[in-house]
């Protein structure tokens, strides 16, 4: 079992020496330490397949940013290889354990377990945190990223995830909402979502809820915001507004990694990113995008209730587009976001003129 077995020492005083007379009232005993019973139910667990005993395997760090929709088999296989075949933990705040048989069928692992962590109480449970810390791979499912923020931020689950990311360096990934929270800058969606049309018409729309470096500490994703379902839901405009707001409000020349459905950006331990996807005749490959802002190119017009303008000679934001491949498309160095080092894609300039998104090749 992946539980820490704590022993409680019960001290009984049967002699009169040092204990007072037999007729004295017994001294109240202190509360014993918590005993984790390996046969008791695992808090938050809604299913596990494989060996329930904990194993320790050597891991190779990596991040997976998946864009939602159909899952990308190749990206999960990439993570499983980096897990050393250890214990896989799926995290979510709603839904089922459907990932358990799916992930288990993609490679050889010791176990796959789903934890449904839908309260602060569960997120602060020692056993829950222990299970996460002892995982060799963690994947955060889709759903509602505001639940992850509200339930997990500032808790033992957050600390356990950051331990995996920064110290143990186990592979960690997420899809859709699970991908949304991996950047140090993130959009919470707590008011129900926002579209490109709404943000381009009003960059200070009340639904633009952005947060800065108060949650996860993923390598290479500091001052990076992610977006998902990118082309499918036409989110290019809103990610531009997010970047413009971050530059305007916080003076941070942020970057973005945006991923379409059925697509995953896999970032290895040294910051090399490739784009994976699963192809079929009815589901052709899609793309991922790497967006880079410049501190000297601030939006010309980001005002409440006014159409956005971020033009800078139609060169406001540099964008590198990489199509997916089952074996990993392109190469992009996320340690420096250098287009000169990027391969397998195309470079563009994106800008906004009076609420209209413009794109042109570099």
How would you describe the overall organization of this protein?
- The structure is a single chain.
- With 362 residues, the protein is α/β, with parallel strands linked by helices.
- Helices cover 21% and strands 25% of the residues.
- The chain is built from 9 helices and 17 strands.
- It has helices at 73-83, 99-104, 120-123, 126-133, 145-152, 156-168, 177-180, 196-201, 236-250, and strands spanning 45-50, 62-66, 87-92, 111-116, 137-140, 172-175, 185-187, 210-212, 224-227, 255-259, 263-268, 272-277, 287-292, 317-323, 329-333, 346-353, 356-361.
- The strands form 3 sheets. The chain has a 9-stranded mixed β-sheet with strand order 1-4-3-5-6-2-11-12-15, sandwiched between helices.
- The longest helix has 15 residues, at 236-250.
- It is globular, with a radius of gyration of 24 Å.
- The termini are far apart.
- The model is unreliable at 1-39 (pLDDT under 50).
TL;DR of this structure?
The chain has helices at residues 73-83, 99-104, 120-123, 126-133, 145-152, 156-168, 177-180, 196-201, 236-250, and strands at residues 45-50, 62-66, 87-92, 111-116, 137-140, 172-175, 185-187, 210-212, 224-227, 255-259, 263-268, 272-277, 287-292, 317-323, 329-333, 346-353, 356-361.
For this entry, give a set of tags.
single chain; alpha/beta; six-stranded mixed beta sheet; disordered N terminus; 362 residues; Rossmann fold; nine-stranded mixed beta sheet; 25% strand
Structural class: alpha/beta
Helix content: 10-25%
What is the element string, with H for helices and E for strands? EEHEHEHHEHHEHEHEEHEEEEEEEE
Name the CATH homologous superfamily. Answer: Class I glutamine amidotransferase (GATase) domain
Q: Give me the CATH architecture, please.
A: 3-Layer(aba) Sandwich
The largest beta-sheet arranges its strands as 1-4-3-5-6-2-11-12-15
The averaged pLDDT comes out at 90
Number of distinct helices: 9
Instruction: Summarize the biggest pleated sheet.
Output: 9 strands, mixed
Rg from alpha-carbon coordinates: 24 Å
